[in-house]
Amino acid sequence: MKVTFKDISKQYRGKYALKNFSAELENGIYGLLGENGAGKTTLINIFVGILKSDQGQVLINEMDVRILGTDFLSQIGYLPQYPQFYKNFEVMDFLRYMCVLKDIPKEKGEKRAKELLDIVNLSEAHNKKIGELSGGMRQRIGIVQAMLGDPGILILDEPTAGLDPQERIRFRNLIAKFSENRIVLLATHIVSDVEFIANQVILLKGGQLVKQDTPQKLIRGMAGKVWDVTATDETVDEKLERLNISNMMRDRDKIYLRVIADEKPDAEALIVKANLEDVFLYYSGAGKAW
Amino acid sequence: MVDLIIFECRKHFLKTSILVAILLFSILNVAKIYTVYHQNSLLSPNFSDPKWKKLYWEMYEDFRGEMSEEKVQKLMSIYEPLEKQTADQTASTRTDNPNTYTGNIYNDFLFFKWCLVQPMEHAYMYGNYAQKIVTNAKENIKFYESVGNQYEMSKNAAIANMFKGRAISDFSYTEMYQYYVHYDFSAFLVLLICLYALMSVFVSEKETEMDTLLLTTRFGGQQTVSAKLVASVIFIGFICTWFWLLDFASFSIIFGSMEGASVPLFVLENFVNSSIHVSLAQYALISSMLKTVGIVVLGLAFLLISSLFKNALLPFIMSLFVAFGLIYFGEAYMGSGKVLLKSINPFILVVNRELFRTTEFINLFGFPVLAYIPALLFSAVWGIGCCIGITLVLKKNALVKKGGKKRVIMEI
Known about the structure:
The structure holds two protein chains of two kinds. Chain A is α/β, with parallel strands linked by helices. Chain A contains eleven helices and 14 strands.
């Protein structure tokens, strides 16, 4: 399957939330990275039809999704940001309801729901009320409902927001498990969510595509741009002001700064190996906020 | 669609809080009906001598059914001496008089006057009253014919036709119906329950962020909105049926009888000029159905208001305001001749006796139309308007809107 975004733009009150966005996705996991307000949710909402773009097209296998209509919807599994679902529904009832909404035959849906609950390790919770579940369990129910129709495209909007580290890792592994033979579009501002599982990363800033590539290539492209700078209490303020800092660590009276810069930022600066977070900060410019 | 409706019912209405509200309001309703009986019934121990109730049902056995000269004579042979003895207020006031029915002659007089003579007199004389209306209407026709007023002629012809041959042949106990048809408290309770329950139908989807998820599913758009509307109407229908049945059962049990079901509606004093010729039981059914329609329309208005907001509090207050506003206007025009203003208000269907207790017409392109017909039409317009409003207001999937019918050949 191939998804093509062609020159998509969306404005809110004269301000671009998404501007001339174009990208091509084929089977695999795509990490949609960007700060809050970068246009991730807007792009997803346009993709799934919740929003109408001002211009541009979304094509599935070269066919406009607007022509496909509801047939397109049966090909997507979507997990929105912060879903609460229905607190008074039992897990299995909620999944049955989602099967009805997705037009999945009763028996097939029931079987699929049980399989998926097993995969996400929630078989025991099938008769629990959704209101009794933890945030992590609820997110796992979220991915189960998204996967019910065995969709070709799985769209996850900030799926790990609010989860503890253990649940986040568990959820990441689930995404990897469900990515076989489908397109997974994972929008997040948490770099570690996509660092190890994404086949490609799409970097968004101010509604525009900044970069799209594999994490490895993006990291390689940062070679020679990440530095380790040592500071003291006396010099740290000046350095924080002047440099683009991605991390800071104190060891007794020394302060180690991880700096992103095209040129050597300090006489004693040492080059270190870049990671995806550095890539994100380099392109988004978020480190300058110090 | 049926599955969607069932899930919508479960999602929004099968809640502990709603069930508790129904239970508590049902208890309150029965208590209120008991109060109506206790404070108003001629046979309640609070209102009259406790002996009245027993005496009434004994006497009722003698006088019930078709009114004959013989029955009237028999009743008058008891009543007239009592009337004479008490006329100058000089009769004995002792309360253990063995020659009386209740132990006191004044008590006897009032019992017969209020419980038997006046109701029987009203029933007996109704034929004459109706005939007088027919005569007046015919005179009016002649007059309006002479001045060339076609509309008034048609109106009076309709009145003459409506009241022609009207009579009450049977004497029956109707006190229960007298209070039953004027009882509105249960409708108020139903309105409150509906207001509470319906607020969550659209708002909860937004509060739980499910609205976006629904829009990305095949049946999560228009079908779900339709399912919500149908589920809401089913819920209103269920609540109304429950409360109207509870009303009827409670009135029958507390008043001790549901006698009079087959006598005409105009046997009730407030309905002597009624535009419909139906029995009390038929009226109870019609009235219940119209009340339900009225509450459905108000419910749809609540749904429309709630669909505009993201949380329940503000639409709850606004819906309450709308409900009380409609009640206020309903009360303001009640009993007035402003038939159009009465009919335009959907609340009129909830207190529909206002439509049926008198014969009122609306001039529709020169034709006299009985007030309840435009009232029903206006309510239908309001209801359809609310449904259209809801479908317009709610978010739609931009893809489905333009959705074609081509099948996707997906290479998965």
